[in-house]
Amino acid sequence: MAPPSAPRAAADGAPDAPAPAGRPPRQRPQKKKRQGRPVRAAGRDPAPGGLRRSLPLLIATIAVLAVASTSAGVYAALTTDDSTPSASSGGPHGDPPPSAGPGDPVKVVDGGQVAPLRRVVPPDVLAAEPGSISAAKIAKIAKLTKVRDVVAVAGGAVQLQGRQVNAFAVDPSSFRSWTPPGTAKKTDLWAALAADRFVVSPEAAEQLQLTRGYEYPVVGRTIPKLTMGGSGELGLPGINMLVSKKSGTQMGLVPNVALLVNAPGVSPAKVVRAVRKILGAHSNVVNLHDAKYQSSGTGGKATSYLDLYKQAATGCPGLSWTVLAAIGQVESDHGRNAGRSSAGALGPMQFMPATWKVYGVDGDRDGKADIMNPYDAIPGAAKYLCANGAGKGGQQLYQAVWHYNHADWYVQKVLNLARAYAARYR
């Protein structure tokens, strides 16, 4: 799932607290200038209990698609990439506000078959039709106010280990950005998908007793034998399998059967209504921020930037997650511009490496504190803010945010955004 649908502009007004005086020097992130479906087989149990219970109404639309109605070989993806937020004037300390020039790759290591992860695109809305969504409708959705990214995927229900599994056929190099951060960073997983192996959710791997590296027949319009390439949280309710576009074509998955929409700065419920109006009454459109989808199959683990901000704030009593979300938006647009700045700052929360050595956190308990990993960087930012008194609120919060970037315009922007988040998600 995914980072919050963040307000793209700060609310009117300045923070209540005045600029603090006598600020002592401390280690800090140091601000920097940037440069510029197939039908199911007869006589089979439709889905294992846990997988069946996770299917929302949306996925029922995909599950009843007939193979006979599919057209193989035609897949389209439409992405609108307008990730540059508007700039504002410099503050009293002379530093310009963070810009959103394209960042360097988040992960330097590349499997050779799949492009490195460059940004995260949090899906806010998932929609499906009983057949292919037309290019005209996709283009119309992409032009909706505040919609930044749209991707259309092929999908359908297939048989795996005698059970029905809902699958999407995707381009691994681009689709990885739409998955939860912990999954998106697994280059080996996406390289396996690029090699025409299949990927499943952890619950599907467990319930279907799948083993990585083993070959399994997948029943669609054809019955190819595909090798399991691994598992990871997909963040999409009811979708438990990803295959390559080549495999999807071979199995007869329905082209453009579903859409993922990213729309920062607007209520997901409003986007749901607008998308449903375009697609029509026969479509199914869900708000991926609904609690029932946020918690599905995650075992309580954060699966989006919104989850990570909320979870990290609990480590600093008195610190609101909205402050972390505001800083995450200003610093990297929630991971979209996480590359190295001209001053050498890195990651979704833009730490200087020297500061990271002091405040870095192994948030996902994988044995290392990775400045590029949002599971580590966001709790690291909470730790840094807390050390500077952010949990005490008021003047101390103002001063803590000021230490993150020595500029009063920056503090005012962060606190205004935090208030906007609080109003949106109350």
Automatic annotation (TrEMBL):
Q: Which SUPFAM superfamilies match?
A: Lysozyme-like
Transglycosylase SLT domain location is 341-393
Q: Where is the composition biased (Low complexity)?
A: 7-16
Q: Where is this region: Disordered?
A: 1-52, 81-109
CDD domains given in the database record: Slt35-like (cd13399)
Q: What spans are recorded as compositionally biased (Basic residues)?
A: 25-37
Looking up Pfam families in the UniProt record yields: SLT_2
The protein's superkingdom reads Bacteria
Mind telling me what this protein is named?
Answer: Transglycosylase SLT domain-containing protein
